[in-house]
Amino acid sequence: MTAAHDATTPTRSPSLGARLARLVVDRPWLAILPWLLAAPLAVRFALGVPADNSPGRLIVPDDEDFRQTQAFARIFPEGEYVVLLAESPDIFSPEALERVAAIEKALARVPAVKPISALTIYEQVHGPFRGGEDEARAFQAFATGTRLFRTQGLVGAGTLGIPMEIEAGGREELQSVLASIDAAVAPFAEHPAPLAAVRKIGGPYVDRYLSEETQRSTLRYMPLFGLFIVALNLFLYRSFRTLFAFALTIGTTVLFTEAFAGVMGYVSTIVSSLVPLTVLVTCTATLVYIHSLYVACPEGVDPKDHQVFTLRNKFLPCTASIFAAAVGFAALAVSGIRPIREMGLWVAAGMILTWLASFTLFPALERRLRTPTQSERRTAGAWWPRIVDTLPHFTYRYRWLLVPGALVAMAVGLVALLGVPGRIDPMQLETDSLDYIDKKIPLYQDTRRFEATMGGLGVVEAWVHVPGGRALDPDVLRGLDGFARLLEADPRVASAMGPTTPLRVMRYVQGQGDALPEDPAAWTKLASDLEQLVLQHPELRSGIDVGTLENARLRIVTRRDTGGYRALQASVHLAWSHAQAQYPGLAACSLRLVGQGLLQAKIAHYLVPTLTESFAITAAIIFLAFLLVFRSPAARLMAMIPSVFAILVMFLVMRLSGIALNVATILIASTVLGASENDQIHFFFHFQEGRRDGGTEPALRHALLVSGRAIVFATMINAGGFLALALSPLPPMRQFGIVSASAFILSMIADFTALPAALWLLSRDRPKS
Q1: Which pLDDT score is estimated for 663?
Q2: What is the pTM of this model?
Q3: Which CATH code of 1.20.1640.10, 3.30.930.10, 3.90.1150.10, 3.30.40.10 fits the domain covering 2-56+238-429+602-763?
């Protein structure tokens, strides 16, 4: 280390960087005060970041489907939907039906909730349900005599559903209404007899669970990571003063990163919960690189002079690595998935703040706290020089095994990710928010049971524009009814409810069956009947824009597997083209698919471009950083081997273990590449320093001596930090933590094996001894 210090200490007049470093070291309060003064404002903005995991938050605002869905919602405003399921082996027994009626009455007393069930419709026709065997059998015949009730989730095998529309002005009000529903249902859920169970399902419950568990996970892993930092710091540097400098710098960086989100109006989601951890890990690793060189102050050298030397020596590699990571994460802005786009910009801001804090606040705290050097207090890693004595010869001897082996593993990982056309399918994509929760909890199991027995919960809206205000014309209504029947013939569609659905229900309760006639002449009266219905019953206006009569909507309930965004669009538009050809009344009408279900299906459409585009941009930016730091073109490519090796092998591990790509695991490539390239930049920076004194062997020894221990410690921080996510109850977060931690370990192994072996091959050099 003394040689490195002497070889790189300049003798010419101090540069601007040297003068700035000297200013921070000599006047530490000048670097501390700006952070201290801005901290109260940062706390205010950081505490103002709300949480939201609803599907509407997943698509960026400038997406065309998102904008059209918002425009549709202004014409057909509707609340959130949840479903209460009453289960019993004999659901049509008088006792079970009386219990269902009591539940519905309790729900009807909750403000802003509109419950409706098959029992409600029965009572509108036959009067209040009075109980008894005869009326129970009459209701059973009524409820099971039509497919309408089954497709609308009202009747299933051993179940009766009570769908509820919640009218809430915002997220906080929605949570309040859900709490009121929980309170109303609690007595029945705790003592369901004579029912077997009372279950609650629906998107708002999934969103609430994700938000609560995301916050709970953050509160769980952040203290755990804090304890990890304390233990690691004391193990490495064995100084409470050093620990205090680390803790203050890391905490300040995370605080200001969260404040940035508050200023930008970002919202915390299951994805953005990774931001604090990513910034924590990156900031800690950067401080380790700086402090590991600082504590190696040679005996007889003034610590202040050595600190200036450390800041100057680490400025270029730290700046290059942090800049590359920041731009790499900012590359996630290409994603059409809103939380991923925001997370990328959010982390990029955190990287910039990490850089500022590392070269201002941290050295100032080192100076004020008088953190000890290794001459004052022994630090960890005394065993490392013995490993350095072995590695150069080992990697030279097995170079023809290490490099081809790494390349083969990378090729297999690439196949695991992308597949082989006609032979191996690409990795599975998960977009259903239900896949983000633990499969063992009742919410997941109840929802999947509902999908299996009663159709599904995915809703796509078919928005039909009817020019000339003819939405209630007989020929238009006949065409819309035919379109609904064409949709329901598709096995991917559970039901299609539109403007004519009230007519079908009305005919059924009148004993005329639930099918509408095909005869065009009969539709004049049907159109008149529907007009009277929507005038007398405002709740039946959901299918017609009664203000202009220029818009109609069909609510399409899809089953779980629709084949993807493109397939869903294609199937609906194909049915529409057939309907237009068959029904002249639809010839002048136009159709557009909108709704939360469409946006959720579109997420899968965006996942692969998010992975490929952001990874390509991240790799290009890091390559550019290497281009600026290193002179050798081949060395630039070699430097990326460990990160790319770790990422591609991790896709192979994910494929073999059944871990799918989703909005969390899709970020593994960019996260690992952005974090692990720090190691390669520091390694190659010092490798170039060593090349001044000789060939490949002394350069490798110098790089390993100066940066090797820091690479090991930084990898421990990266892996340990992300491994804390393994405690999360959310499967994507748990998978992300385990897989990314493993990737960091693989990257470190490649740093010390495949990378030196590739350098031996590239240089065609030999060890001197």
Answers
A1: 64
A2: 0.69
A3: 1.20.1640.10
